[in-house]
Give the backbone structure.
Amino acid sequence: MATDRASVPVAAAPPGEPATIPELRSRPSRRKHFDEPSGVGRLGRYALLCLVAFVVLFPVYTTVVAALKPGSEVLQNPLVPTTVTFDVLVEAWNEGRLGRYLFNSFVVASIVTIAQVVTSVLAAYAFAFLEFPGKRLIFLVFVATLLVPLEATLVVNLETVDGLGWLNTYQGLSVPFLATAFGIFLLRQVFLTLPRDLRDAAAIDGVGHLGFLRHVGLPLVRPTIGALALFSFLGTWNQYLWPTLVVNEAEMNTVQSGLRLLRRSTLTEPNLVMAGTVIAAVPIFIALFVFQRQLVRGLTAGAVKG
Amino acid sequence: MLAPSAIILGVFVLYPLGRAVWLGQQRCDNFGNNCVSQGFGQYVDLFRSTEFQNALGVTIRFALITVPAGVILGVGLAVLADKYLRGIGVFRTVFSSTVATSVAVASLMWLFLLQPSVGALANVGWFNSLFPSVKSPGWLQDPDTALWAVSATSVWANLGFTFILVTAGLQSIPRDLHEAAAVDGAGGARRFWSITVPMLGPTLLFVVIVSSTRAFQTYGEIDLLTGGGPQPSNPTTTLPYFIYGQNSPIRNDAGLQAASAVLLFVLLLLLSGLQLAGIGRRVHYGD
């Protein structure tokens, strides 16, 4: 699906229409489509779309409204922002430590993303271009790790990380996730599209593996690395269970486990909690808006290629 | 070149799995010391225990609610937005937007909607006169509605993901099929059931498998919304919460935690088996 759509240039969007997820855009069509509603049907369709959009966005809307209200008014008119103030957002950033949590999340997600890309490229290259005994078996074992859910390993990982003295540290939060069979598998598939002769020819010319990887391999897998990096970053950023297990000092929380801490104020300062939620959500909303094209590609690649 | 990945995967995936299988037959005191081997019969005992059975039942019920609801709503939204209309892109962005919310963000948003004393829905006059139970005792506090309230949160949080997948699936259906059927006099409903649904088959299967796997791994919503409660019947203690939750009876028992984790792994393996059997032929693995 992605291939036949890739040729539609994004810039072809008619003026007045917002640039949006290219894969999800309505197909450009000059003639009137046979199934295009008109007149009353068209109005009805718009009304229905607006109603559904309202329902879908309702939780977001009430959250934003609450975050913008001073504490004294939060229980009155939950749907209308009577007095708008940014004080609560500032308070959540400073006293709710959201700024600190965002920083931690950013550090951990960056470490994991960079490491996963590096370890995946190296291992994928080895599986694609090196010959060594037991290669198939080792590859099978690697892929089999994809079947092991996080929940099954964390009991022991907690023990390991505790034993290393890594509770409440960036190492503890990131080290268990520095490699992923998903990335290795993904990149290996791309490397395998390179003809073996090319590697052999390069070897005859005296190009070593690292040189070949740098000049031929990396340019080839760059788009796939982009997709892998996006998914690694989002996946790490959104992790909830592991940070709540490894962190018990407030300072070291990620955004997700930090929200858990903030939740304690739900009954006393609900608007502070909602302000924290808004701050926690904004970076990912922005990131996904910027990268929505890659995200849709990545999500749909697994589903509809067939 | 393999060493970095091999070390990480070995130490943090394979070793913990092996050790969990071994720990799972150990019985320890409350401080995690003086462990005695109980033999693998401990797995059977655990599986038969009321607490584990409750968690398993809750997880299955949760999956049976969220998976069909998520698929139906996702397909509904995608079909609704699959029209040639000016500005449809805005609606598509809105419908896919919940993909940007993490579990924690989505849960706190819904906690604020549903919490009886401070929640938005509980404090909107017309809504709580329509549904008095949102105020008293509160949907998250009532044992009969708690699982439904948590499910609603989860379905909402995953709606954007489902929407994106189904929309992509819809767009891969050749328009000619619809046009030809329309020429032959097939109406919208007929075309939906005879063309759209069968052509969406592989996409729907994929969505079902991903959502049911997710349902079996649900932890964050439970932790933030109900803490597995309300007590004492624990109608929202899913398996992951049973293993790791603050209020779990086995919270400090590494042996039973490990045993439950292994049982969860086996259950998910069975689900993955279904996945491979179902779509293995459709996905291109190369080589």
About this structure: Chain B touches chain A through 102 residues (CB under 8 Å). The CA atoms of residues 222 and 255 of chain B lie 23 Å apart. The beta strands of chain B are 26-27, 36-37. Chain B has 13 helices and two strands.
